[in-house]
């Protein structure tokens, strides 16, 4: 029996060189294109290779500007938001500057002869409100000066008997009481209001608006009420003695002084009421701020309540 493995050349030959094998390989070989979907089993269904998010034809996401204007938001609204952001940025810069000023020179400086508080309109009040606060300060100084002249005028009313004595005593009481209370109840609250823009200070100023009515009372100058106003001035000119004439001349100054500061404060009361509404301050906010901070809000410096 012949040995089938005796032919060594058949063993050493390359099996893939057989023409049958080469034909099978040629018929089964296929070229794949990069974008051609791979077809499993030669069926109709095919699976596509997923596209990368970085491909040129990948869907683009909207930019941040496009997203910001979405949801029906108009360009006018975007402009309003931008304007408010700029205003807040300016306000923050102003507050930081004032805080730095207070840190450097924040010692009490008013009144100059016995400093009790820090008072500086140019560094604590925003530039847009400095003129209003300055005029209110001048009106307060006018009231104080009128109270001083009023005491002197009432001294010259001493010749009118009991009424003259009452005028002297009452006018002497008015000077410190009205002078201090007017500063604490209407000038300082509105000073803090423009400095801090908190509702509590505006409504404290409005509640203390009774000083306008009291100004009218002082202008009338009813005898024995402590005011050398209009009525006492008229009575002084009807007397024949020289002391009454001096009282009458001083009475004119007192009447004009009380009337000027009263009308000036009435004018600014109206403007400040309008400003309060424009800034959106409410009485509910004022009550909330008072309940939270109490009297500390009145005495704190800077933008803190």
Automatic annotation (TrEMBL):
Transmembrane segments: 137-162, 168-188, 200-225, 245-269
Keyword annotations of the record: Membrane, Transmembrane, Transmembrane helix
Species assigned in the record: Ceraceosorus guamensis
A UniProt-annotated Pfam family: SCAMP
Any GO CC annotation of this UniProt entry: recycling endosome membrane
One annotated GO biological process: protein transport
Membrane topology reported for the UniProt record: Multi-pass membrane protein
Compartments, as annotated in UniProt: Membrane
InterPro entries xref list: SCAMP
UniProt keyword Membrane, yes or no: yes
Chief localisation class: membrane
Name this protein carries in UniProt: Scamp-domain-containing protein
Superkingdom assignment: Eukaryota
Region ranges (Disordered): 1-83
UniProt entry tagged with the keyword Transmembrane helix: yes
PANTHER family xrefs: SECRETORY CARRIER MEMBRANE PROTEIN, SECRETORY CARRIER-ASSOCIATED MEMBRANE PROTEIN SCAMP
């Amino acid at each position: 029996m012949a040995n089938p493995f005796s032919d060594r050349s058949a063993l050493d030959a390359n099996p893939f060189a057989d023409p049958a094998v080469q034909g099978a390989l040629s018929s089964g070989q296929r070229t794949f294109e990069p974008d051609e979907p791979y077809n499993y089993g030669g069926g109709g269904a095919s699976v596509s290779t997923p596209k990368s998010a970085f491909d040129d034809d990948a869907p683009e996401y909207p930019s941040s500007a496009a997203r910001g204007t979405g949801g029906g938001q108009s360009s006018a609204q975007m402009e309003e938001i931008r304007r408010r952001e700029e205003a807040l940025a300016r306000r923050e810069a102003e507050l930081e500057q004032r805080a730095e000023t207070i840190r450097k020179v924040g010692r009490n400086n008013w009144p100059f002869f016995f400093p009790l508080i820090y008072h500086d309109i140019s560094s604590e009040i925003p530039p847009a409100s400095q003129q209003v606060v300055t005029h209110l300060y001048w009106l307060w100084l006018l009231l104080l000066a009128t109270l001083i002249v009023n005491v002197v005028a009432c001294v010259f009313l001493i010749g009118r008997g009991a009424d003259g004595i009452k005028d002297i005593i009452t006018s002497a009481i008015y000077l410190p009481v009205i002078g201090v209370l007017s500063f604490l109840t209407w000038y300082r609250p509105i000073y803090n209001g423009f400095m801090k823009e908190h509702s509590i200070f505006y409504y404290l100023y409005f509640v203390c608006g009774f000083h306008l009515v009291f100004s009218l009372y002082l202008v009338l100058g009813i005898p024995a009420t402590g005011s050398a106003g209009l009525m006492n001035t008229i009575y002084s000119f009807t007397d024949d003695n020289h002391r009454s004439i001096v009282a009458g001349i001083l009475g004119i100054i007192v009447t004009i002084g009380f009337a000027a500061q009263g009308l000036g404060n009435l004018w600014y009361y109206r403007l400040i009421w309008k400003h309060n509404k424009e800034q959106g301050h409410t009485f509910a906010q004022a009550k909330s701020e008072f309940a939270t901070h109490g009297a500390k809000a009145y005495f704190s410096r800077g933008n803190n309540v």
